[in-house]
Records
---
Amino acid sequence: MQMDTIVIPGLVLKETRYKESDRILTILTPELGVISASAQSSLRLKNKLFSACGLFCYSEFVLLPGRNMYTIREAEVRNVFHGISSTIEGMSLAMYLAEMAAALSPTGEEAAKELRLLLNCLYMISEGKTDLHVVKAVFELRTMSECGFLPQLVCCKICEKYDGPAFYLDPQEGILLCEDCAKKAGKICNLDMGALYALRHICLVEDKKIFAFKISVGSLAKLSAVAERYALTHLDKPLKSYDFLKSVLP
């Protein structure tokens, strides 16, 4: 192994095929953030890079830095989320989460947190143990919180009321208004108590407890709408995977 190579774990967010058997991969890594890497001949079945460079593979990569992108010298699989491809809904949600992570392109500590979150969410999709709408809302809210867009969730921005039957989360400003203050501001409440509790939990709890909450169907519908609007409001560009996801997972 050459001395100037880098050994690093990473999750394949996207693969672009070129030539007959090569791939250019978009990989989320904990230290380097989102990188592009060339995997030459990796589409040949007998090539040693074939399995470790697949979409949503979490692998350990040996990278050679180049002028525009890295070249993958070696790769070894750490985890493959086989269950993702078993449903069109799961696959389209995974594509959406991966595209959002790539668009945010976190670096440093934020990249490490993003990688842990995405691996956790892909595991949940793959195992089919959690409602996909829950996985989507968790990722949207947590990823925005960890990439510098943590909403102000403690209390009403105006009167400092902590709880109540209904609240409004402003998707642009990231502030909470209680029912009375929202009404005075001409806003219609978009959260009930269940959705507000889940919102606080998702954004503020430690990593390993992120899915440890219960929510009713009605509250989940409100949470899902708020999470999606909040995330898409703070992204610089629209996501190509969004329309297809909404067609299969309304």
---
Amino acid sequence: MINVLPGYEKAAYRELKNIEGIKDVYHVFGEYDFVVIIDVIDLSILNAVVDRIRESETVTATQTIIGAEL
């Protein structure tokens, strides 16, 4: 889940869509601005993708939740 600077939602969306490993980007309303689905093969790659997201000048906060199959 990602928060961005107010007024930069469209720019952030375009930037997020171009990051390798990001499968889907959803603009949402509420506490967060975006929910991003990341599909990678291991946690080290997930860490690299999250680091890349956090490097963005438009991103102000992230929260990572790891899902598991039942």
---
Amino acid sequence: MTTTTRVLSVTVPVPDQDRALEFYRDVLGCEVRYDGEPWPGARMVEVVPPGSSVGIVLLPADSEIPVALRLGTDDAQAAFDRVKEAGSTLHNDAPISLGGGTPMFFFDDPFGNGLVYIQEG
């Protein structure tokens, strides 16, 4: 059975990433974990409260990057097969690796909420 190892990050949809970053960093005291483009034209901003391992991803609602809850798993392929067998809506044909990174895939829960499984380790 596939195991969800932990919550990695949650997405907060924002209309302005710079304003959101200022608020989460300067007002709420979060630390910037990542501010860059995983691919050209797709900006991803992730902040994390001090001492927390769960990140907050600040994305426009129309981003190419999934607005989703990101979960860790020990085996992305086994997780993909299990989610597919359960009849979930999959947004990838198989786990993908961006830029040689760790395998992951995007899917929906039965209520249309976006989820991403990312293989850890």
